[in-house]
Amino acid sequence: MDPLLALDAAADELGVSRPFVRQQALAATLPPTAGPNEERMVRLSDLLAWHEGMRERQRTALVELGAELDQEIARTDANGPATGGGQ
Quick one: 62 exposed, middle or buried, by C-beta within 10 A (0-12, 13-18, 19+)? Predict the structure, then answer.
């Protein structure tokens, strides 16, 4: 059985803010499920899959940023030291 978590419990499970999880559920980025009394809830499996996807996107962005910084450093090194730095 795939347990349902209230959005506040889902936020606590991941260690993220409750408003962030609510925002993601409202945007349907994190697929909500109707619980008792029409309370918004999320299936644990959906929460974990969403979290892993978010972490993968963050890893990809960091790798891309690192590559851009490496290129910028290489360009700076190739052009010599910067001038006019005021020191």
Answer: exposed
Note the pLDDT of residue 68.
95
pLDDT at 80: 72
Q: Please, what sign has the CA dihedral across residues 48, 53, 58, 60?
A: positive
Mean pLDDT split into 10-residue runs, the chain, 87 residues: 93 95 92 88 95 94 95 86 57
Q: Which residues contact 30 (CB under 8 A, 6 or more apart)?
A: 10, 21, 24, 42, 46, 47, 50
- Mention the CATH class of domain 4-78: mainly alpha
